[in-house]
Amino acid sequence: MDSDAVEIEHLTHVFRARKHAPHIAVDDLSLTVAHGECFGLLGPNGAGKTTTIRLINTLLPVQTGSVRVFGHDVAHHPMAVRALMGYVPQQLSIESALTGRENVEWFARLFDIPRRERRARVDAVLEMMQLTESADRLASTYSGGMVRRLELAQALVNRPALLVLDEPTVGLDPVARDSVWGHVRQMREEFGMTVLLTTHYMEEADMLCDRIAMMNRGRLSALGSPDDLKRAVGPRATLEDVFRHYAGADLNDDSEGGLASVRQGRRTAGRLG
Ligand SMILES: Nc1ncnc2c1ncn2[C@@H]1O[C@H](COP(=O)(O)OP(=O)(O)OP(=O)(O)O)[C@@H](O)[C@H]1O
């Protein structure tokens, strides 16, 4: 493929709610994600990461600027974009009253995978996510880590060229987190897939991402490899230092991007798992 996996040019998104002042969630953002790259979108709560992802995956209409996925403009060819993409959202995307297998089959049908191929494809992604033995149990009996792996299986069943993960390991214990990281790595190695992820875990971004975009208040504040970003902040700087450097005063603001609200988010997600 010649084109970049994702090309974002001068993207701006304004939320307008009645009785509230317009809120600029994404503010003149431009960046590209190369084919085969693992790219991280980082930034404090409210920085605009999820809004950017929802614009890329066609769940929000583009207002200003443009987004192309493997050369397809998301505003003009949304179905082509959806066919190329797997998405694991922040919110739970499984149906707890169905078995693991039924959850993946449901996605296979949504993606119009032909009936004769469906069973083999579903089995393959369940196997890859080490869910074969528990595939016929209700998803309501799964642990938080298994739920995340089931969501990855759903997102992979149409063999996407671009996998988009919105906080893939939030609320998981360290062992379950390691397992998700391992699976993301394995998928990249086996399929050369492009991965775009958001996370609040700096260790995760450092280990998985080839390049990272730091966002703050809708704008791009830094872009580079984890090592480049660390070097630019200072000798022996960690990615957490980089995060603090660019998030600045926002980390003390509990109403929007504060660390306290990040912790609250993790606690909430922990209960979901
Ligand atoms: N549907 C909406 N209506 C109004 N404002 C919204 C809506 N969705 C998001 N926002 C606002 O847009 C801003 C960016 O939100 P977004 O969810 O993109 O941030 P984020 O970086 O993903 O944050 P988090 O790390 O908490 O997931 C926030 O101020 C948020 O309150």
TrEMBL record:
Family matches, as InterPro entries: AAA+_ATPase, ABC_transporter-like_ATP-bd, ABC_transporter_ATP-binding, P-loop_NTPase
Main site of residence? membrane
Q: Identify the PROSITE patterns for this entry.
A: ABC_TRANSPORTER_2
Region described as Disordered: spans on this chain: 254-273
Ranges for domain ABC transporter come to 9-242
* Compartments in which it is found: Cell membrane
Q: Which GO terms describe its molecular function?
A: ATP binding; ATP hydrolysis activity
> What are the GO BP annotations of this UniProt entry?
response to antibiotic
Output compositional bias ranges, type Basic residues. 264-273
Q: Which GO terms describe its cellular component?
A: plasma membrane
Membrane topology, as annotated, equals: Peripheral membrane protein
Q: Which UniProt keywords apply?
A: Antibiotic resistance, ATP-binding, Nucleotide-binding, Transport
Q: Sorted alphabetically, which SUPFAM superfamilies does this protein's record hold?
A: P-loop containing nucleoside triphosphate hydrolases
> Does the record's keyword annotation contain Zinc?
no
Q: Which PANTHER family match?
A: ABC TRANSPORTER ATP-BINDING PROTEIN, ABC TRANSPORTER ATP-BINDING PROTEIN NATA
Q: Which family does it belong to?
A: Belongs to the ABC transporter superfamily.
UniProt-recorded name of the protein: ATP-binding cassette domain-containing protein
Q: Which organism is it from?
A: Brooklawnia propionicigenes
